[in-house]
Design a protein that fits this description.
Length: 336
C-alpha cells in the first residue's frame, strides 16, 4: 500500500497547510476526495486500525491514503479543520469536553463505536490471586478483589526502597492519567501501607511487570487495554466502586468512566465520500479483537500494516460485513 506519513508539529501548522482536504467546488458544495487522510495519535492500536482502513480504502474503493501523525489535541484539531478526514480511535472520555464541543458544533460526525469494552486501572497478575499450578505458584493474595483490599497485602508487593511498604507502579510521568491515579491513591488511603511511583515511560512500567511476572512475584500497577501487554499476560483488573459522575468529579473515587472509542469524520465527509462513510458506519471491533493484532505485532516484531493483513485473513467473516460484496472481493484479492 502507498502510505505517506506527515509529522504534525503544532495546531498552527495545521492551520497554515495550504492543501487542506476541505474545499468546495464552484457551486459551493464540498469537493469530492481523491485522497483520504487518517489520524495517527501515537499508539499501536490506532495504527493497526488505520492499516485496515487503508487496505480497504485503497484496494476496495480506489482512494489514495495518507496518515497525519501528531498529538491527540493536534490531530483532533486537524479533523475539525478538515486537514484530516478520518479518525479511527477517538477515546471520547479522555477528550470529553473537546469531543462534545466539536460534535455539538457539527464540526465532526461520529460514524460508529470501534470498541467500548476497553478498561484501565490497577492490575495484578492473576496468579497473585489464584496461583499458577503449572508454575508451582501458590496464591499470594487469595482474597484480593478490590483496590481497597490492597491494604491487607502490602508485603505481597514489596517496595525495594522501603521495606515497610508495598509499591504501586503508577502511570508514566507526564501522562494526564497519572494525575488521576495519584488522586486515587490518596482517595483510597493507600499511602499508609504503599508507596506510589511514576515510571519515566510506558516501557519502564512494562519492564517492572515483566520482571515480576517471569519471577512469579507480586506486582500491582496501572495499565489499560487494548494493549499487547494485557493480551500477552494473564492480568486481573482490581475492582473499584461503580462509576458515579459526582463522586468521580469530587475525588476520582470510582472506577474509570465508560470510554467509547469511536470512529469520527470531518463534517464534509458524507458529501465528499458517501460510500466511505457507509463503510465507516459499519466499522466495529472489540477489545479482544484489537489485542489479537497487537499481540501479533509484539510476538512477530511486525508492523501495523503486517498485523492488519494477518488480522484480515483471520477475520474475513468480520470485515467483509462492513463493505459491499464487490468491494470485499477486491480487498480479498489484494491479500492473497
Amino acid at each position: 500500500m502507498k502510505k505517506k506519513v506527515f509529522i504534525l508539529l503544532t495546531v498552527l501548522v495545521l492551520a497554515l497547510i495550504g492543501c487542506s482536504s476541505e474545499g468546495s467546488s464552484g457551486d459551493g458544495e464540498p469537493e469530492k476526495l481523491d485522497k483520504i487522510v487518517l489520524a495517527d495519535a501515537g499508539w499501536d492500536s490506532i495504527r493497526f486500525h488505520n492499516s485496515i482502513a487503508q487496505r480497504i480504502l485503497e484496494e476496495g474503493y480506489g482512494y489514495e491514503t495518507e496518515v497525519t501523525v501528531g498529538s491527540t489535541p493536534a490531530t483532533l484539531e486537524g479533523l475539525r479543520q478538515g486537514d484530516i478526514n478520518v479518525y479511527l480511535e477517538v477515546w471520547t472520555d479522555n477528550v470529553k469536553e473537546l469531543y462534545e464541543e466539536m460534535t455539538e458544533a457539527g464540526e465532526i460526525v461520529t460514524m460508529s463505536t470501534n470498541f467500548d469494552d476497553n478498561s484501565q486501572g490497577l492490575y495484578v497478575p492473576t496468579y497473585v490471586i489464584e496461583g499458577d499450578e503449572e508454575r508451582g505458584i501458590e496464591p499470594l493474595a487469595p482474597d484480593l478483589k478490590t483496590v481497597e483490599d490492597l491494604k491487607k497485602y502490602p508485603e505481597v508487593f514489596p517496595d525495594p526502597e522501603d521495606s515497610s511498604k508495598g509499591r504501586i507502579v503508577g502511570a508514566p510521568t507526564g501522562w494526564a492519567v497519572n494525575e488521576t491515579m495519584t488522586a486515587k491513591f490518596e482517595t483510597y488511603g493507600l499511602g499508609e501501607t504503599f508507596s506510589y511511583i511514576s515510571p519515566g515511560s510506558d516501557s519502564s512500567a512494562v519492564a517492572t511487570l515483566v520482571d515480576a511476572y517471569e519471577s512469579g512475584e507480586g506486582w500491582v500497577g496501572y495499565y489499560w487495554s487494548p494493549t499487547w501487554v494485557t493480551a500477552k499476560y494473564d492480568l486481573t483488573l482490581l475492582e473499584e466502586p461503580e462509576y458515579n459522575e459526582e463522586q468521580w468529579n469530587k475525588d476520582f473515587g470510582t472506577a474509570f468512566p465508560p470510554n467509547d472509542v469511536v470512529v469520527a469524520v470531518h463534517k464534509d465527509m458524507p458529501e465528499q465520500a458517501p460510500e466511505v462513510v457507509e463503510f465507516l458506519k459499519n466499522y466495529e471491533t472489540s477489545n479482544d479483537l484489537t489485542e489479537e493484532a497487537l499481540n501479533y505485532m509484539n510476538e512477530n516484531e511486525a508492523s501495523a500494516e503486517e498485523a492488519a493483513d494477518w488480522w484480515m485473513k483471520q477475520h474475513e467473516d468480520i470485515w467483509t460485513t462492513w463493505v459491499p460484496e464487490d468491494i470485499a472481493e477486491k480487498v480479498k484479492s489484494s491479500l492473497e
